Amino acid sequence: MSSTHIRRHVRAPRERVYRALLDVRAVALWKVPDGMTSHIHTFEPHEGGSIRISLTYEAPTGTGKTTAHTDTYHGRFVKLVPNEQVVEVDEFETADPALRGEMTISITLTDADGGTDILAVHEGLPSGVSPADNELGWQLSLAKLAALVEAG
C-alpha cells in the first residue's frame, strides 16, 4: 500500500479552513476533482460520525471504481482537533479486490505567512489506485478548497 503527501498554502485563517473541511456544502464543492460531480449521502462531522460520498465522472469515458462511472466511498471521522486536524478512514465500495481496503486521510492545518499551511496525507492506498492519480486528484481538490476559503 502506498501514500501521498500534498502541501498547499492558503491565504485564509485556520478557523475558516477547518470549517470548510467539515461543512457539508463546502465539501460538496471542494472535495471533488475536476471532471466529476459530488453527491453526499451521509456526512456527520463529529468523531465517530459517518461519511458516504459518490463522485461521478462527467465524461462518459470516465471509469468508476463502484459503477461504470462512479466512485462511492464510505467511512468515518476518527479524529477532529478544532482548527488543527481532521482524520477520516474511508473505503471504496467496490467488488474489485485491488481497490478494497481502508485508507486514512489526515489533513493538518498550521499557521504560516499570514494564512494556513495544509498538509493532506492519504495513507493505505489500495494497489489498484495510482499514487500519481491520487496526488493529482488531491491537488485539484485542494486548489478548490483554497479558492473557496480565500474568497471568504
What this model shows, in words?
By secondary structure, the chain is of the alpha+beta class. It has a domain at 2-35 and 79-150: Alpha-D-Glucose-1,6-Bisphosphate, Chain A, domain 4. The chain is 24% helix and 43% strand. The chain is built from three helices and seven strands, in the order E-H-H-E-E-E-E-E-E-H. It has a seven-stranded antiparallel sheet. Strand 4 (70-81) and strand 5 form a beta hairpin. Helix 2 packs across helix 3. The chain is globular and about 45 Å long. It starts with a strand and ends with a helix. The model has no long low-confidence stretch (mean pLDDT 94).
Please write the CATH class name of the domain at 2-35 and 79-150. Answer: Alpha Beta
Q: What is the succession of H and E elements? A: EHHEEEEEEH
Helix content: 10-25%
Largest sheet at a glance? 7 strands, antiparallel
- Overall geometry comes to globular
Strand order of the largest sheet: 1-7-6-5-4-3-2
**Computed Rg:** 15 Å
The CATH homologous superfamily of the domain at 2-35 and 79-150 is termed START domain
Give the name of the CATH architecture of the domain at 2-35 and 79-150: 2-Layer Sandwich
Strand pairing plus helix content: what structural class?
alpha+beta
Count of separate DSSP helical elements: 3
**Mean of all residue-level pLDDT scores:** 94
Q: In total, how many beta strands?
A: 7
Features:
152 residues; ASHA1/2-like_C; 7 strands; START-like_dom_sf; 3 helices; single chain; globular; alpha+beta; seven-stranded antiparallel sheet; Alpha-D-Glucose-1,6-Bisphosphate, Chain A, domain 4
